[in-house]
């Protein structure tokens, strides 16, 4: 129906829908990376959920991210994360005031009080002392600035905080001004109960790529990539540790499907993640 209304073929219409979806995801990634001063070439894109690995390589290509990590069973990653992650709770107090001797004393007092609250909460949750951790955070900005930055660390010294604020502001906004007044916005203590069991590396999976290869089928990789292409199809459960495959390819598993466009390679690491990278000539 869409193809008929826009005067295109069904292939063109479907490709356009996917390209719009990829562009929207790329825009969201730019808003939390490039627009905040981060160089996406220094990062990998983690693809999870049932549909994440379908789009990941195309989104990475759009944004300029050089690598994609697809964890094992990506469709259940959120559920497993709830079961395996540490417990945590954030304690926060607003403290909108210029940074001076008086406000710094107030900040230290609030930090001590919230640390005591956080410790009481962790005790109530049954977390033993060696497994309790606290992250101290001060959110601050220059006076007149729209958004605050997050300064983390065991910062109990005012001069050390100012230096850390300059560094974070430089990373996020690309500048810092040493003679401009700083304004505190929030003070946080993040309590962490380290209850998660340590993960053990799985044993190497034997086999070969040929044994994992199901066959081939025609897959539309997008108009810009030449449209339809014959792609090898693999069973992820049978791909051995250390295996490397080249696109165009599709890796199937119970909870997700990973698409590997032409110009990308995939390798299986020791933790059974799929690591997608662009070939040097394509990067």
Could you characterize what this model shows?
By secondary structure, the protein is of the alpha+beta class. The protein has 2 domains: about 150 residues, no CATH class; about 110 residues, Dna Ligase, domain 1. About 30% of the residues lie in helices and about 30% in strands. The protein has a 5-stranded mixed β-sheet with strand order 1-2-13-12-9, covered by helices on one side. A 4-stranded antiparallel β-sheet has the order 3-6-4-5. The protein has a 4-stranded mixed β-sheet with strand order 7-8-10-11. α2 packs across α3. It is globular. It starts with a helix and ends in a 5-residue tail after the last strand. About 20% of the residues are buried. The mean pLDDT is about 90.
Put simply, the count of helices is 7
What structural category characterises the helix and strand content?
alpha+beta
Order of strands, widest sheet: 1-2-13-12-9
State the distance separating the first and last CA atoms. 37 Å
Estimate the mean pLDDT confidence: 91
Number of strands: 13
In short:
This protein is α+β, with helices and mostly antiparallel strands and 283 residues long.
Keywords summarizing the entry:
2 domains, 7 helices, Dna Ligase, domain 1, four-stranded antiparallel beta sheet, alpha+beta, 283 residues, globular, single chain
Secondary-structure blueprint:
Elements (H helix, E strand, L loop, with lengths): L1 H5 L3 H22 L12 E3 L5 H12 L3 E4 L6 H8 L2 E12 L2 H24 L7 E11 L6 E4 L5 H16 L8 E12 L15 H4 E8 L7 E8 L8 E3 L2 E4 L4 E4 L3 E5 L5 E5 L5
Helix pairs in contact: 2-3
């Amino acid at each position: 129906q869409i193809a008929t209304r826009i005067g295109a073929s069904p292939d063109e219409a479907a490709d356009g829908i996917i390209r719009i979806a990829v562009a929207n995801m790329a825009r969201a990634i730019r808003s939390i990376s490039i627009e905040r001063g981060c160089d996406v070439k220094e990062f990998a894109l983690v693809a999870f959920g049932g549909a994440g690995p379908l789009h990941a390589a195309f989104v990475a290509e759009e944004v300029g991210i050089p690598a994609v990590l697809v964890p094992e069973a990506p469709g259940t990653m959120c559920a497993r994360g709830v079961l395996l992650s540490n417990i945590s709770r954030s304690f926060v107090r607003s403290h909108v005031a210029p940074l001076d001797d008086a406000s710094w004393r107030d900040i230290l007092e609030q930090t001590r009080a919230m640390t005591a609250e956080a410790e009481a909460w962790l005790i109530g949750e049954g977390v033993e002392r060696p497994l309790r951790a606290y992250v101290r955070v001060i959110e601050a900005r220059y006076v007149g600035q729209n958004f605050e930055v997050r300064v983390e660390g065991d910062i109990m010294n005012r001069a050390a905080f100012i230096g850390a604020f300059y560094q974070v502001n430089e990373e996020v906004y690309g500048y810092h001004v040493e003679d401009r007044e700083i304004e505190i916005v929030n003070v946080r203590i993040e309590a962490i109960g380290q209850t998660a069991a340590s993960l053990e590396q799985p044993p190497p999976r034997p086999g070969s790529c040929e044994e994992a290869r199901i066959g081939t089928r025609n897959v539309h990789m997008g108009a810009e990539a030449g449209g339809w292409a014959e792609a090898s199809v693999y069973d992820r459960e049978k791909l051995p540790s250390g295996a490397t495959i080249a696109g165009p390819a599709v890796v199937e598993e119970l909870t997700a499907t990973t698409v590997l466009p032409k110009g990308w390679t995939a390798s299986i690491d020791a933790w059974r993640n799929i690591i997608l990278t662009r070939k040097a000539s394509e990067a």
